Amino acid sequence: MRKLLNTLFITQSDVYLSLDGDNIVLLKEQEKLARLPLHNLESIVSFGYTGASPALMGYCAKRNISIVFMTMNGSFLARVIGESKGNVVLRKRQYQLSEDEDQSAIIARNFIVGKIFNHKWMIERMTRDYPLRIDVAAFKEVSAQLSNVMQEVRACRDLESLRGWEGQAAYSYNKVFDQMILQQKEVFFFHSRSRRPPLDKVNAMLSFAYTLLANDMAAALESVGLDAYVGFLHRDRPGRASLALDVMEELRGIYADRFVVSMVNKKTIKEEDFLRKENGAVIMTDDGRKKFLSAWQTKKQEKMTHPYLGEKITWGLVPYAQSLLLARYLRGDLDEYPPFLWK
């Protein structure tokens, strides 16, 4: 199991990244902001890309330290990684199965089963923990709908049909998502998913969390020898880490959605941590991003027992655990890919 090391998040704009010996140096208008050792870093994520020296990128590439560049509102721009050291036999098998839509559907349906199962668990837990604060009947109705869809997905062998069932499950889940927000209801709400751009504070946080999770998943897949850009549910598109989006489907609700709801309900993040741009887009302020990223890193360090492996690991290692299981399935060591089914 890969050790979970640190990620360096650079949230200030106009920061240039350079190398000094075995250290990364952060410069803003020639002023040195920080100097940090690189030997204990796993990745570097920079918001508001200004630049990075070729020396730093070369150093990180040789040592398997990824550098990710994102816009200030959390949209992915690029990821710099070193030479692929993945198992060529494993990748050839991945490419072969990805070209076969029937085989792709068999793999993809387990990602969707995991997603729906975890959404259902979240809904059932809300009815257990907050029966006086939510519409229990509405939650139970959605839970039953998700159970029915899950049965259809388990038997599905067609990608288009699978996407249809996934969309139906997402529609049902989204109908009660707003009720999971129990605090600060006057400013934090969810009516529907808006992406480009996010039009409210909850959607802004969801987009940010999904971007962070996708980056973690892509790094995990590459680390076990898989190609993060060749998926089974999400088909090939230049620049899109399709397999990372595939595997993170089962983690969207249980990992990212719960995290966002928790940030609001615990009042870790507040109204003043957001601003609205002229085009209607809602983004987090610098302070808001820092709060979010600090809590995200803390979440990644929390320990839990993996439902399939039965081992205690941190939440931050879940993407690596699922990547390993997927690689084992593709190699023929497992009869079926075991999705992350949390309870």
UniProtKB/TrEMBL annotation:
Q: What does this protein do?
A: CRISPR (clustered regularly interspaced short palindromic repeat), is an adaptive immune system that provides protection against mobile genetic elements (viruses, transposable elements and conjugative plasmids). CRISPR clusters contain spacers, sequences complementary to antecedent mobile elements, and target invading nucleic acids. CRISPR clusters are transcribed and processed into CRISPR RNA (crRNA). Acts as a dsDNA endonuclease. Involved in the integration of spacer DNA into the CRISPR cassette.
Question: What Enzyme Commission number(s) apply to this enzyme?
Answer: 3.1.-.-
Which family does the record assign?
Belongs to the CRISPR-associated endonuclease Cas1 family.
> Which major enzyme category is it?
hydrolase
MF annotations from Gene Ontology? endonuclease activity
Tell me the CDD domains matching this sequence.
Cas1_I-C
Cofactor(s) needed for function: Mg(2+); Mn(2+)
Residues reported to bind Mn(2+): 166, 234, 249
How this chain assembles, per its entry, is: Homodimer, forms a heterotetramer with a Cas2 homodimer.
Q: Does the keyword Metal-binding apply?
A: yes
Record keywords: Antiviral defense, DNA-binding, Endonuclease, Hydrolase, Magnesium, Manganese, Metal-binding, Nuclease
Q: What is this protein called?
A: CRISPR-associated endonuclease Cas1
Q: Which HAMAP family match?
A: Cas1
> Is Heme included in the keywords of this UniProt record?
no
PANTHER family listed in its UniProt record: CRISPR-ASSOCIATED ENDONUCLEASE CAS1 1
